User: Which sequence fits this backbone?
């Protein structure tokens, strides 16, 4: 298969998978978000380590742990991705999946802003206008929606900080994920012990089965993304990313039955216009 076509197929599968995650976590809504988060961290670590063992790549983990800068950097990125996961799980279980999708539409523009403020990367006039349009859309939601869309902002900024941190840590994707979630394992175990095992002990077989999938469904899309990212241009990857929040939005409205209000009808097209303006190829 042509390498570009393989890359496109891989990232499409990753982005669509991430897009339907809201339905998955909504199905686990009978469990507290913190408990789902704990099982997700433990399951992802175990699954990642198992795959690395099968691939005979456990040395990648040892190399990361032997480099204090990489190990501590991944501890910081674990805090960022943990906040992102926790916010998304809570939003999906509490009727805020549509707002969560808004966060991932905003995220690339927040990432651009952080690159300017933290890394000193310069924005063109067109990119500055795009970031301004996104800010106007958020302001519109605040004025005409249900107050500050804090879920969207938490998801956008936590994902942007995660990307910023991982940009400075050159490690293999799956091994990096294993170490990141490994930092979460002890707090997750401590939390589960503190709550006496949680509500999962009283859950039905369907819920337990869904929860057991948390590790694979977290790690597999990341591996697919890594496969695609190595074979595609960055601009192509960036454009395809917007499949993720678009699918999230469709799932929230069409499957989970959330209301698409007039405030959303105005804000979302402005966000799309900002993304199109930012992504428009240079001549």
Assistant:
């Amino acid at each position: 298969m042509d390498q570009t076509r393989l890359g496109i197929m891989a990232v499409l599968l990753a982005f669509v998978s991430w897009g339907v995650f809201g339905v998955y976590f909504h199905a686990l809504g009978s469990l507290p978000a913190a408990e789902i988060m704990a099982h997700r961290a433990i399951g992802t670590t175990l699954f990642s380590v198992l795959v690395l063992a099968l691939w005979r790549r456990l040395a990648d983990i040892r190399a990361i742990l032997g480099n204090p800068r990489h190990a501590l950097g991944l501890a910081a990125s674990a805090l960022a991705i943990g906040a992102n996961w926790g916010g998304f799980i809570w939003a999906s279980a509490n009727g805020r999946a549509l707002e969560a999708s808004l966060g991932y539409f905003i995220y690339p523009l927040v990432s651009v802003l952080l690159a300017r403020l933290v890394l000193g990367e310069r924005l063109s006039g067109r990119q500055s206008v795009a970031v301004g349009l996104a800010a106007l859309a958020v302001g519109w939601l605040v004025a005409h929606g249900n107050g500050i869309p804090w879920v969207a902002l938490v998801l956008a900024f936590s994902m942007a900080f995660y990307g910023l941190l991982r940009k400075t840590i050159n490690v293999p994707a799956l091994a990096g994920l294993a170490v990141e979630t490994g930092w979460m394992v002890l707090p997750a175990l401590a939390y589960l012990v503190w709550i006496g095992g949680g509500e999962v002990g009283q859950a039905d077989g369907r819920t337990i089965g869904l929860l057991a999938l948390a590790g694979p469904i977290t790690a597999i899309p990341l591996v697919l993304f890594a496969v695609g990212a190595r074979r595609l241009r960055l601009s192509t990857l960036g454009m395809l990313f917007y499949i993720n929040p678009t699918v999230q939005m469709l799932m929230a409205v069409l499957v989970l039955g959330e209301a698409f209000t007039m405030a959303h009808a105005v804000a979302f097209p402005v966000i799309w216009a900002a993304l199109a303006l930012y992504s428009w190829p240079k001549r």
Observations:
- The chain has a mean pLDDT of 85.
